[in-house]
Write a structure and sequence with these properties.
Elements lengths: L1 H12 L20 E2 L4 E2 L5 H5 L4 E5 L2 H15 L7 E3 L11 E4 L2 E5 L4 H18 L5 E10 L7 E9 L5 E6 L2 E6 L4 H9 L9 E8 L19 H13 L2 E5 L2 H10 L3 E11 L10 H25 L2 H4 L5 E3 L2
Parallel strand pairs: 3-6, 3-7, 7-13, 8-11, 11-12
Antiparallel strand pairs: 1-2, 4-14, 5-6, 7-12, 8-13, 9-10
Helix pairs in contact: 3-8, 4-7
This protein binds ligand LQZ7MJT6 and uracil.
């Protein structure tokens, strides 16, 4: 089944002209496609005008991280918004996800877990399709638990697997389980790794990321409301993950890498470890430290974005953002 899907995907990729192709024949037949959870629509908004210039979609769990990230990118790429205005959350009326846009970069929050990021991915992929954006690259920048890594280490995922060790995203559809293969762009992983600076005061590594369906029992924690295993069993499990090449555990890598691959979109996952799971479960690190750790993700993603923009005619790329008057 996975092989069949791969062949189908490869066939439709052959006709690619850079714009995102939807593998859904129904959408074209709709009068308007309502992107409900991001409060946008293909008729109610001029999506080509608003998002046609997008080259990067950066996703991360929280609205605050993605707002901060948008400001950081704005500063770094030298993007200007009119004095007295501030970046606006484009999907504020959805009360679900937050979207910021700075020139060719979208910064969007995805919430926690597979179903939350899954819904957003459907709508972001459709947004890129309606906008006729060319070759957009998706990044997930997130936090994670590390396995044997110093907290604050940056992990670039070169593979992802679920809690059963499967390298596919399974979803019950019409009463049957559909499995979509996980695939991350190896070249993009190498390019990101090449952007690590000698003097970065923290380590950056690559490896497999385990995607759990839950933060507590699903990640083998003993600090949830329930726990039916011992600390020894937990340690055995975590060590078995290490032997499989797993460097970190989070909650979105499998749907993210499977659905972007299914859409023919180049994508990468960069996460920062906020604790070493071999040493404990509780997140005791202060919020300010976590904020500093998260900056490491913005730094790496922005290095890539800047490098990309330098190789293109950035004057035509630095077209639009959405800003409102500062309060
Ligand atoms: O991007 P974030 O920091 O939200 O990623 C991880 C995985 C879950 O979404 C969440 C659990 O605390 O953090
Ligand atoms: O341990 C952790 C830390 C952050 N996010 C996770 O999903 N797990």
């Amino acid at each position: 089944m996975i092989k069949e899907q791969e062949e189908k995907r490869a066939d439709s990729s052959e006709t690619r002209d850079g714009t995102v192709k939807l593998r859904n024949p129904h959408i074209e037949l709709f009068d308007q496609d309502i992107l409900y959870h991001i409060a946008l629509g293909s008729k109610s908004h001029d999506l080509v005008e608003m998002f046609g210039d997008v080259k990067f979609v950066c996703m991360g769990g929280t609205p605050k991280r993605m707002e901060t990230s948008a400001h950081y990118i704005m500063e770094e790429i030298g993007y200007k918004i009119p004095t007295g205005t501030t970046l606006m959350d484009i999907s504020q009326h959805s009360y679900r996800y937050s979207i910021y846009k700075v020139g060719p970069v979208i910064s969007v929050s995805h919430g926690i877990g597979s179903s939350s990021i899954g819904v957003l991915l459907h709508e972001m992929i459709k947004l890129m399709y309606h906008a006729k954006a060319e070759d957009p690259i998706f990044f997930r920048i997130g936090t994670c638990g590390g396995l044997g890594l110093e907290p604050g280490t940056v992990v670039i995922s070169d593979d992802a697997m679920n809690g059963l060790g499967n390298h596919y995203y399974s979803l019950p559809i019409l009463g049957k389980v559909l499995k979509r293969p996980v695939k991350l762009d190896k070249k993009l992983v190498r390019e990101l790794k090449a952007l690590v600076a000698q003097d970065d005061p923290y380590d950056t590594t690559t490896g497999t990321t385990m995607c759990a369906e839950d933060f507590y029992e699903g990640q083998g924690r003993i600090d949830g409301a329930f726990c039916d295993y011992t600390e020894v069993e937990k340690q055995e499990y975590l060590k078995s993950l290490v032997t499989q090449g797993v460097k970190n555990i989070e909650m979105e890598s499998v749907p993210f890498s499977a659905l972007t691959h299914q859409a023919g979109i180049k994508a990468a996952i960069v996460c920062v470890t906020i604790l070493n799971r071999l040493k404990g479960d509780q997140i005791a690190v202060p919020k300010e430290v976590i904020t500093q750790y998260q900056q490491r993700l913005q730094i790496l993603a922005t290095r890539y974005i800047k490098k990309y923009l330098q190789t293109k005619d950035s004057s035509c790329l630095l077209k639009g953002s959405f800003a409102v008057e500062s309060p």
